[in-house]
Amino acid sequence: MNNKRYLALIIGMATCAAVTASDQIVIPAILVKDGDTIRAGSGYGAHHVRLCAIDTPEKDQPHGAEATAALAAMLLSGDPLRIVFTGSAAWGRVNGLIIGDDPKYINLQMVKDGHAWAARDIYADDCGQLLPPEVLQAAEDEARAAKRGLWTLPNPIRPSEWRKK
Fold first, then answer.
1. Does the keyword field hold Hydrolase (predicted)?
2. What is the pLDDT of residue 101?
3. What is the pLDDT of residue 19?
4. CA of 36: how far to CAs of 52, 108, 114, 154, in Å?
5. Does 147 score more than 80 pLDDT?
6. Active site residue ranges
């Protein structure tokens, strides 16, 4: 991987149309912006997607770079990927659940691997129908107990608290 501000990943070719909650697209091109935000598509068809129901460390926060790299690695796995749009988010983004081929929920995998918190109160919207909060919380509890990812830090701080600093 290079050290550019964003990691560009080409996953395939398709066209993104206007999206509403519960719409789906096959991911054509991806720009990983951080551990829980991507840009899917290109040009006028691009959508900034916030991975629903999870929250990863900020870029300048401990484990932020690792979370971003982990998401990029999952999206580079070669599996076909699709996004299920689950609602709208701040700053012109949409919330989405990224699904791999087996089907592996990328959002859930980020929590299982210790790169994200289960976001019980924010960004959950319609995502909870596809990925129940109790499943995400169980994954976080397991990652925490196994000291995976950010849980190896002596005092992990939720991004919402970090931003208040």
1. yes
2. 76
3. 45
4. 8, 11, 13, 22
5. yes
6. 50, 58, 93
